[in-house]
From TrEMBL:
The chain crosses the membrane at residues 12-31, 104-125, 137-161, 181-199, 238-264, 284-310. Keywords: Cell membrane, Membrane, Transmembrane, Transmembrane helix, Transport. This is ABC transporter permease. It comes from Pelagibacterium lentulum. SUPFAM superfamilies: MetI-like. It is a multi-pass membrane protein.
Length: 317
């Protein structure tokens, strides 16, 4: 990988993250209504003195640009502010809830992306056969089923078929590995199914295109086995659009995890940010959204680097 390409992508990453921080900062402050009065709540005696005190504590009495530079300066040092309701550092609040979301997202990516490759290759090889049509119809159905609906139905079915098995809540892997994986099965299925359906169709299309190329016909003429042709020659080129899509969909999985965590009572970032929005916990909402959007950007940056590793011609442009 060329150094120039790497530094170019790092510069793009820094620029995008800077833009994301500005958007997140302005998004919270441009919400209609007085944010300070909303945070004080309807059951509190809202006096001008209390409003001024909270506004000063949050730094909202300063000009916008001063507020931004104070906030981003703290973020760069690992200081995301203090939660209004608990008084704990926001970084600690996020750290306590980020691992369930990371585990759910990574397992869903592993299942969705991992299974889509053999399924997509099978669909390309069995093109036009009855079983391929059935798998393709199943993939289309997987795209149309909402994750939250699938989660609710799976909980209901599990309660009917295996009433003694728990599907709700979260147990850290370090405390109970078996219990952790048991509770993760249904959320991972619900979250990964749309990704699996989408990527398997993408792999099928890319494989059909690759298998029609001249170098595949040359490999066949030289007597290469079907497995070698499919999984070495054709799949390498088919992986380029696949990897790009995996990066984009991983970011969307972070958003989908918010809903799935609510359905399965998983105490991750999704439940944290929804609770913070309900409580009008201004610093926590801002920091959590920044972390989730930054994760989306960083994942796509890593995909760009992997793209260049698979196809070195990209780094030479």
């Amino acid at each position: 990988m060329r150094t120039r390409f790497l530094f170019s992508r790092l510069a793009d990453l820094a620029f995008v993250l800077f833009g994301v921080s500005i958007i997140v900062f302005l998004m919270i402050r441009l919400v209609p209504g007085d944010a300070v009065a909303i945070m004080l709540g309807a059951n509190t005696d809202i006096t001008p003195e209390r409003v001024a005190e909270l506004r000063g504590r949050l730094g909202l009495d300063l000009p916008f640009y001063v507020q931004y530079f104070n906030w981003i300066g703290g973020v760069l040092q690992g200081d995301f502010g203090t939660s209004i309701w608990t008084g704990r550092p926001v970084a600690q609040e996020i750290g306590a809830h980020i691992w369930p979301t990371l585990q759910l997202t990574l397992l869903s990516v592993a299942v969705g992306a991992g299974l889509s490759i053999p399924i997509g290759c099978f669909m390309a090889q069995a093109r036009g056969r009855g079983i391929e049509v059935a798998v393709r119809v199943g993939a289309i159905a997987g795209l149309t089923i909402p994750s939250f609906w699938l989660g609710i139905v799976s909980i209901f079915l599990l309660a009917k078929l295996l009433p003694g098995v728990s599907a709700l809540g979260y147990v850290p892997f370090t405390q109970d590995p078996l219990g952790n994986l048991q509770r993760m099965i249904l959320p991972v299925i619900a979250l990964s199914l749309p990704m699996l359906a989408n990527l398997s169709r993408l792999v099928r299309s890319a494989m059909l295109d690759a298998l029609s190329q001249d170098y595949i016909r040359t490999a066949k003429a030289k007597g290469a086995s079907q497995r070698l042709i499919v999984y070495k020659h054709a799949l390498r080129n088919a992986l380029i659009p696949f990897i790009t899509s995996v990066g984009v969909m991983t970011g969307y999985l972070l958003g989908g995890a918010i809903v799935v965590e609510q359905v399965f009572a998983i105490p991750g970032l999704g439940r944290l940010v929804l609770g913070a929005i309900a409580e009008r916990n201004y610093p926590l909402v801002q920091a959590t959204i920044l972390v989730m959007t930054s994760a989306f950007v960083i994942v796509n940056f890593l995909v760009d680097l992997l793209y260049a590793v698979i196809d070195p011609r990209v780094a030479q442009k």
